[in-house]
Design a protein that fits this description.
The chain is α+β, with helices and mostly antiparallel strands. 29% of the residues lie in helices and 25% in strands. It starts with 47 loop residues before the first strand and ends with a strand.
Amino acid sequence: MNDDPAQAKNGAAHTPAEREPDQTVLIEFPDPLLRAAPAAAEPARKRQAFFIALSGRAIGKTFPLTGATVIGRAADCGICLDDDGVSREHARVELDDRGQVWIADLDSTNGTFLLDGRRLGRQVLQDGDRIRLGPETILKLSFHDGLEEDFYRHQYDSATKDALTGIYNKRYFLDQLKNDFAHARRHGTPLSLIAFDLDHFKQINDVHGHPAGDLILRELAGVVGRALRGEDWFARVGGEEFAIIERAADERQVRAMAERIRRTVESHRFLWDGRAVPVTISLGVATLWGENFRSVDALVRAADEFLYQAKQAGRNRIASALG
């Protein structure tokens, strides 16, 4: 995963912001530049309450509020925030009949605070209030209409997604890898990185043209994405280069996952202009366990080196410390 800052945005490399893995990054999304008044015949849009994630893994996402819901790390929470420091059931939020938003901390480990430092018990939030859940996650309450929701969603996608494939871009992916690396080192859990790319992709472009190559990249992203677990992170990190973060899985488990991905791609029927285009991938797998890697860069280099070994050995195969 070459970190060349000169590469283009859509699908190519971006150098991630230099920061410590546990340092909170706060992004304030601007208001829409143009809020034209609706035509006379169009009914007024009802403004709805939303939380907007300003930092943490869900940064940029909007969460509509209807009735009562729980904010927490558990998968069944109405607002699920998979951030270190957020309790499984952290806080309860409720929209009452008057349209007021109430929030109550659920005896969370790290507390729920306003940004001025006041710890919340149960109280009404005002439009624009920002709350901190644990050390890293900040949510902002906002009342806005459907047009503004679309705007914020577009801002989130532009900041985090690859334009061609719709999966995460390199900059966002590397930020997540830094956070996951710090979490794994802190808690002594395994963390694996799978690096892979398409075999002979230049030949596909030369024979069938770049539109065919783009279509295959998009379809490949969908094929691989459907084979992953819900907690995995998947990104396009270069022209035909991809990477996957596998959390809490040891090297043998991740090696088995990589083999399943390789076989899924090999057996998938990619079509262009009615003709099948053979597509295979080569994969490199590196696993953090204990302190075998001192830095994120070392983990990335190891995955890249194993990927190179897989290609040198004949392509359409996996290389890792297990062989």
